[in-house]
Amino acid sequence: MLAETSISRCGNRCQAEAQAARAELRSLTPPEAGVAHALCETSLSFSYMPASRQTHIYKVAGECRIRADVHACSSESAGPVLVWIHGGGLIMGGRADLPAWQRDAYLDAGYSVVAIDYRLAPETKLPAITEDVEDACRWVRERFSTILRGGSQRTAVIGHSAGGYLTLMAGLRIQPSPGALVSFYGYGDIVGPWYTRPDPFYRQQPLVSRQEAEQAVGSVSISETPESHNRDRFYLYCRQQGLWPKEVAGRDPEAEPEFFRHFCPLHNLTEQYPPTLLLHGDCDTDVPYEQSALMAETLSRAGVENELVTIRNGEHGFDRQRDATATAALNRVLAFLGAHLA
Fold first, then answer.
1. Can you tell me the distance from the alpha carbon of 8 to that of 268, in angstroms, rounded to the nearest whole number?
2. CA atoms of 260 and 268, how far apart (whole Å)
């Protein structure tokens, strides 16, 4: 709902804050070059709660509005900003996938969090998806001094699974470079056999037909997964047939290897790459643990500061539920961020 404001437990003071915020948001500059710098949609919560959430449209691409949720600290001077990127094979998922307990841990540590959407494959292809992430990070840099009222210019990018891949791509594409990158079970090589060959693990499930896969997706660009969907069937089909790179990029990796090279962080690392933290379970059946191990090895050879946190017996998505393992992993993340965004 446009310009919807929820006010609770704070009386006249918060009503005045809400009115001032709406006036400020209306004053933001108009869209430029396809990126919606103006705040087009807002969901505000002013109360004695520790944080407020604002939903922004950071970019308009054709008819597709691409949103970001800003979770701002309640302190007078918001700390560094974390850009959070969801997973889902670039095919599904959304900004609301950010686990609440992780969001709260970041906020409690003094960070503000911007959880972003991006256009989804296969309706949108890989180059445009990575451009969305670039535009989101640019929007954060240009606008959060207003949105987050005095926030630091220091930013980090954090992503999970395919969001981890986009995080590692951000290290190549975003200028100025983020202060740190954090990849949860991400990957740096999208043309290795694990993605370009039929996957034995996924082929243990009944095979998805081409027809069923095509019926699960559409032809119009979207940046948010519909409430009722079966886009996971398209992902499963891609993994069973070894077609993920071809379907997501719209190119054949065997016929056009040089095109894909530009979208493989593993093959483009230099000493200018940001400090990187990699977290990965060694029993991951979706993204092989080897993907993070190879990134760590290549980062070290390039002279880039990095850490690899191996989760023993950890599966894909080991951090979704808050338990001792996930909490310990997040503490490593907070320590890494504290060292590089101080």
1. 50
2. 11
Considering the domain architecture, whether residues 91 and 188 belong to the same structural domain is answered as yes
**44 phi and psi, to 5 degrees?**
-110, 145
Q: How many domains does the chain have?
A: 2
Q: What is the pLDDT of residues 154-198, one digit of tens each?
A: 899 999 999 999 999 999 999 999 999 999 999 999 999 999 999
pTM over 0.70: yes
Closest Cα to residue 244, out of 326, 141, 162? 162
Q: Find the domain containing 24 and state its range.
A: 1-33+42-49
Alpha helices in the chain (DSSP H): 11-26, 100-108, 126-147, 162-173, 193-196, 210-215, 231-241, 244-249, 257-261, 289-301, 324-340
Statement to judge: residues 14 and 101 lie in one domain: no
18 and 86 belong to one structural domain: no
Do residues 202 and 339 share a domain? yes
23 & 95 share domain: no
* Core vs surface per residue 89-110: b (16+ CB within 10 A) or e: bbbbbbbebbeeebbebbbebb
